[in-house]
Amino acid sequence: MRRPTAGRGTSRTAPDAIARALEEAVDRGRLAPSVHNTQPWTFVLFPDRVELRADRTRQLTVLDPHGRELVLSIGAALLNVRAALAARRFAVDVARLPSPDDPDLLAVVRPVEGPPEAGLAPLDRVAHRRHTNRRPFEPATVPDQVIDLLVDVAAAEYALLVPMRDPAQSSLVAELTQEADRLQAADPAYRAELEHWISRPPAQGDGVPASSVPRTPRTRRDAVPLRDFDVRGTGGLPSHTGSGTEQTMVLVATPHDEPLDWLRSGEALERLLLELTRRDWVAGPLTQALEVPTTRERLRRLTAPAHPQMLMRIGRAALAEPTGRRPRRTVVVNSTRPTPSAPGTPAQEPPAPPPPEPRHRPVSDGRGGTAWL
């Protein structure tokens, strides 16, 4: 069997280059978004590959009883691993859900001979800049040419992107989001699970800090409400989020609704988020209507026959702060990196990010407005 080697431009000497690239790739995987920032993954390193495994102890049993959002989260981490290896000039072989007898093994990634995956290397440069943004959105909407690009990006990951271009579509999204939000808020078990993930001890490196969520007023005014994370009345962001039917909203959908589709939709989601980050747009999830079976089925009217997997808003907003990440030793197995000799030693943290890409500049959109390209 031929030894996996680096792609064009990478040293073919020994497995050292592969091992180093895999160590760096899992650090990029750790930066991926996840439901409630649960980071429900484990990366298992081997000399020639990395396994991405589900950590079911971190599954949201009330919000996500079937593990759909858990698998989607790991799909996002998988995309980051692929992009990191492409940036280091490695081609990859990805086996998704390779073992029916081991459902927690969601993917195996091996560097192999050949050119890197097209279009992924630039995304690695912005992985550290991508953050879920719940700050107030400005009125600006995303130009059609950017939306068309995102449709192609999703298709490259075997997913369908459905923009809400019609007011009737946006109105349905608003109606279903409000309904699902009310149903979830009325469930004591949901509220208890949500509170568990709010303001976790900093040393845990997970969960959603109060500083990154909006304050929730007694009367919610946004037509498309964000999830109410402000369970203790300590939300650090303004209560008005600019989340309405006039904003740009998109649905990510897949042909089927099985674990492989969930994994693929996570890869598509993260690729979309990184492409948006490259262009200085921000995005945030609107997932309540996808988590209540009755509203999810009605939301499917907008994607049928495909199944909706993620709804998000896209716009302009002030930069969001990064959320914590679990200590590397708790999520990376078989690492050859030395363990820090004292608390606070940065050896367990992701490596310094590469130099950022040049910022995109505004240009005329031909209609009297401005587009960012």
Radius of gyration: 20 Å
* Main sheet record: 5 strands, mixed
Distance linking N and C termini = 45 Å
CATH architecture classification name of the largest domain: 3-Layer(aba) Sandwich
Strand segment tally: 11
CATH superfamily of the largest domain: NADH Oxidase
Q: Identify the overall geometry.
A: globular
Briefly note the CATH topology name of the largest domain: NADH Oxidase
- Count of helical regions: 10
Structural class: alpha+beta
* pLDDT < 50 runs, ≥5 residues: 1-13, 340-373
Helix content: 25-40%
SSE ordering: HEEHEEHHEHHEHEHHEHEEE
Strand content: 15-25%
| Strand arrangement across the biggest beta sheet | 3-4-2-1-9
Description:
The protein is an alpha+beta fold and 373 residues long. It folds into two domains: 16-124, NADH Oxidase (3-Layer(aba) Sandwich); 144-322, 3-Layer(aba) Sandwich (NADH Oxidase), CATH 3.40.109. Helix content is 31%, strand content 16%. It has ten helices and eleven strands. Strands 3-4-2-1-9 form a five-stranded mixed β-sheet. A four-stranded antiparallel β-sheet has the order 5-6-8-7, with helices on one face. α1 (16-29) packs across α2 (68-87) and α5 runs antiparallel to α9. The protein starts with 15 loop residues before the first helix and ends with a strand. 42% of the residues are buried.
